[in-house]
Structure formats: structure tokens, C-alpha cells
From TrEMBL:
GO terms for molecular function: ligase activity. The keyword Transmembrane helix applies. The keyword Ligase applies. This is O-antigen ligase family protein. The chain crosses the membrane at residues 21-39, 45-66, 78-97, 127-148, 160-181, 208-229, 236-254, 260-278, 290-309, 370-393, 405-423, 429-448. Residues 245-382 form the O-antigen ligase-related domain. It is a multi-pass membrane protein. Keywords: Ligase, Membrane, Transmembrane, Transmembrane helix.
Length: 475
């Protein structure tokens, strides 16, 4: 092999090695985040190591995106990059900009109270500038995982999704082992709390979130196996059995975590995944029967889950917490009180009825807490993130049904995390923040994939995918 052919072969081999190395680095960082980052309050050596590892990985991923194929130049990518940049910029700016630009009735009253005791008012936009800067570093691993996942080819993104499922199963196995061990056992990474099938997490609700993500990804795999099933392909049956087993484990374990929202999200996410995959293998009586049976099972399960939620009413404290968070945020509008200021400011502003032996660590609503911490800039970030999500979904739905399965599934799983954030705070843990970043990178990477789906190659790729599906091959 000589000349142009040799150069092409060498370049392709180098690119493949770089992709494998990038996948290994992203997987290592994701494992480190999930195993050591299960708490929203404690940051140990593992979280610090993840932040250090994220720095070179961010540079490497940025280099890969700049020198990648045309998918990196897709304009829709910039909505996500702008969103990620704004998320990082807000806490950094809060830690350095002067307090004069923040304003707000609450800040004025606080300065007056401090002045009575001869204490100077906070001089920065954030009331807790050190905590705000720490919050920016808290985002680094997730940003690195997102950028690297976005730069990886489709096969590597599938491996990354499989790792998420494997981590969820490992966390579940650890959680089961914790139930039979004493509270101070080495199996419990947070011995200050009684083990409650937490796995890698301090809060079992976040274990539930990861299980929902794993079941969603496994459901997609099962749907692909069912849609492409042909007699005489035993490996397909094995894949389907493994996926069904993961879904079963998640369904059984979720009620044991005590997360009622997790049960509902599992049902809705799996139903959406089945509906999204059905166009790839519709046409026969079997496919229609599978779709109808799946939707019927989902409807019955959802009905039973809602009845269970009415009988086992959720703690009513979360409603007052969210309401009071909104009231305090209004006093510190329009720029917010600063990332990391929630705990001390809530303790200061809360009425006596809500003062407890244990401090309130979060608002149990991610969006209310962002409004509390960053005001109008937070609203801008949320709008920009919503636009990025909508653009990604639009691009995925424009692809042939046989090609969009992984991207749509990752987007559904990401949506489950975002929905759970309405009543909890999974994204406050480095673990779930890293998982969400991996899912976002996979979804965006699949949406702007360049393996023949752009321009004139779209129709050719779609035809090839249909042919593979008809022969029982997974695209």
C-alpha cells in the first residue's frame, strides 16, 4: 500500500487510536465521578481528583472538536457550547464582580443589619464568593465529559452509554450489600447516614435517578432487539435478556429506594423509548402487537404507581421549602444571592417553623434554587438550555428512524434527570451531573453525526440502515 491509500490508512488508524484513548479517558473520569461524587455536600479526594483530571481532558476534547470532521462545525453545536460556557461563567463572575451590580431588597436589608454591628456588607455579587468559585470548579468534570462525549464517534458513544448502565448496576449491587452491613461499614461511603440501598450515593433518591437512566438505556436496547429479531440469531436473544434483566432489577429496586417520582419516571421514560423506536421496525403485525402491549403495560403500571403515591403521600415539607425559596429569591432579584449561598441564607431568612435540627441543604427544586442563586442570568441559562434541547430533538427526529435510536434514548434519559430535578436535586451531586453530561454529549453527537447523514448522504445512509435492519443488523 503506497501513496494516498497508505496515507489514508495511516490517518484512519491514528484517528481510531485517538478515539479509543478519548473513550478510555472519558470513561475513567465518569467512573471517578460516580464512585466518589454521590454527595451534594461532601467533596473528598475523589471529587478533587476528578476536577484535576478534567482540566487536561477539557483541552484535549476542545482540540478534537476543533480538528474534527464537519459535524464539529454544525451550528447547532454552538447552542450547547454557549449554554455550557454560561453555566461556568455565572459562578466565576459572581465570585469577582462587585456587589453594586447585584442590587435587591434583601441585599440592602442585609447590609443595614450588618452595619448595626459594625460589620462590612459583602463586597461581591455573591454573598459567598468562595463557595461560588468552588461551584465553578464543581462543573469542570461534567463539562469535560460532555465535550469528550461530543467528540467521540458513534461506536464509542454506545460504549459510554453501556458504562452508565454498568455503573448503575454496580451501585445497585452495592446498595443491596449495604442493607446487610452495619451503618459504619466500609461498604457505606457515607456512614453518617444509615444505609438505605444508597449505593454510591448519600441520598437514595439519587440512586433512583441513576436506575431510571439505566432502565431507559436498557429499554432502548431491548426495543432494538425486538425490532430486528430474526430466527437463528442467539446473540440477539442474549442482548435482549440482559437488557430485560436490567429493566427488571431497576423496576424492583426503585420502590425500595423510596423514590415515588423515580417509579413514575421509569414508566414514562420506557414508554417514550418504545414509541420512539417503533418507527424503525413498524409494518408487521408483530410490531404493532408489541407496541400496543407495551403501551398497555405502561398505562397499567402508571395507574398503579399513581395510586401508590396517593396512599404513601410524599413529605409535605418540600412544598413549603420551594415556596420559601421563591420568596427569598424575589428579595435578592434580579441577580441572585450567589452560588453556594443557599444554606446560610435560608437559615437566616426562614421562619422559626422551618428551622430544624438538621439544616436544609437544598430547595428540592433545581430550577427554583438556580433562580435563588443567580436570578436573571440563571433564567437566561435555562432558556438557552431549553433551546439547545429543542434543537437537538429536532435534528434527531429529522434523521431516519433506524439511525436516531441512541440519540433519542440519551435525550429521554437526560429528560428524566431534568424532570426529577423538579422535586429533588440530583444535579447537585458530581455523580449525576457527570451522567447527565455524558447523556447530553451522546445526544448532541448523534444529532450532528457526519457518517453520511448530512446533505446528499442522508438518503444513502438511511437506505443502508434500513437494509441492515431488514437483515437483522443493529445500526
Amino acid at each position: 500500500m503506497r501513496g494516498a491509500d497508505a496515507d489514508h490508512h495511516h490517518g484512519g488508524h491514528t484517528h481510531d487510536l485517538q478515539s479509543r484513548a478519548g473513550l478510555m479517558a472519558a470513561c475513567a473520569l465518569l467512573v471517578l465521578c460516580v464512585v466518589s461524587g454521590g454527595s451534594s455536600q461532601e467533596s473528598g479526594a475523589g471529587v478533587f481528583a476528578a476536577q484535576l483530571l478534567a482540566l487536561p481532558l477539557l483541552g484535549w476534547a476542545g482540540w478534537r472538536l476543533l480538528h474534527a470532521t464537519p459535524r464539529a462545525a454544525n451550528p447547532h453545536r454552538y447552542a450547547w457550547l454557549a449554554f455550557a460556557g454560561l453555566l461556568f461563567a455565572i459562578p466565576v463572575l459572581q465570585s469577582v464582580l462587585p456587589a453594586g451590580m447585584a442590587g435587591g431588597e434583601g441585599r440592602t436589608a442585609l447590609a443595614a443589619d450588618l452595619g448595626r454591628f459594625g460589620v462590612e456588607a459583602p463586597s461581591r455579587w455573591s454573598l459567598a464568593p468562595a463557595a461560588s468559585l468552588a461551584a465553578a470548579f464543581h462543573l469542570l468534570p461534567a463539562l469535560a465529559i460532555f465535550a469528550m462525549a461530543l467528540s467521540l464517534p458513534a461506536a464509542a458513544q454506545r460504549r459510554l452509554a453501556q458504562l452508565v448502565v454498568a455503573l448503575a448496576v454496580a451501585s445497585l449491587v452495592l446498595g443491596v450489600a449495604q442493607l446487610g452491613a452495619p451503618q459504619e461499614s466500609a461498604l457505606n461511603p457515607y456512614p453518617q447516614w444509615a444505609a438505605a440501598m444508597n449505593g454510591f450515593f448519600a441520598n437514595p433518591n439519587h440512586q433512583a435517578t441513576l436506575l431510571v437512566v439505566a432502565a431507559t438505556l436498557a429499554c432502548a436496547r431491548l426495543a432494538m432487539v425486538v425490532g430486528a429479531w430474526r430466527p437463528g440469531r442467539p446473540h440477539r436473544v442474549t442482548h435482549g435478556v440482559v437488557a430485560a434483566l436490567v429493566m427488571l432489577l431497576a423496576a424492583v429496586a426503585l420502590p425500595l429506594t423510596g423514590s415515588r417520582a423515580g417509579v413514575v419516571l421509569l414508566i414514562l421514560s420506557c414508554a417514550l423509548v418504545v414509541a420512539a423506536h417503533w418507527p424503525a421496525w413498524r409494518g408487521g403485525v408483530r410490531s404493532r402487537a408489541v407496541l400496543v402491549a407495551s403501551m398497555a403495560i405502561a398505562a397499567i403500571a402508571l395507574f398503579l404507581a399513581l395510586r401508590w403515591m396517593q396512599v404513601e403521600a410524599i413529605d409535605e415539607l418540600r412544598g413549603p421549602l420551594r415556596a420559601l425559596t421563591g420568596e427569598i429569591a424575589a428579595r435578592y432579584a434580579p441577580m441572585g444571592a450567589g452560588m453556594g449561598s443557599y444554606v446560610p441564607l435560608f437559615e437566616q431568612e426562614a421562619p422559626r417553623e422551618l428551622l430544624m435540627a438538621n439544616y436544609v441543604n437544598h430547595a428540592h427544586n433545581e430550577y427554583a434554587q438556580w433562580w435563588f442563586a443567580a436570578g436573571a442570568p440563571a433564567l437566561l441559562a435555562m432558556v438557552l438550555g431549553s433551546i439547545a434541547l429543542a434543537l437537538t430533538l429536532r435534528m434527531l427526529l429529522r434523521q431516519p428512524a433506524q439511525l436516531r435510536g441512541l440519540g433519542v434514548t440519551a435525550l429521554v434519559a437526560l429528560g428524566a434527570i431534568l424532570a426529577h430535578s423538579w422535586v429533588d436535586y440530583p444535579l447537585r451531586t458530581p455523580a449525576m451531573l457527570a451522567v447527565a453530561a455524558a447523556l447530553a454529549g451522546i445526544a448532541v453527537g448523534q444529532a450532528i453525526r457526519d457518517d453520511g447523514t448530512h446533505n446528499g448522504g442522508r438518503r444513502h445512509a438511511g437506505a443502508a440502515a434500513i437494509d441492515r435492519s431488514q437483515r437483522g443488523m443493529t445500526p
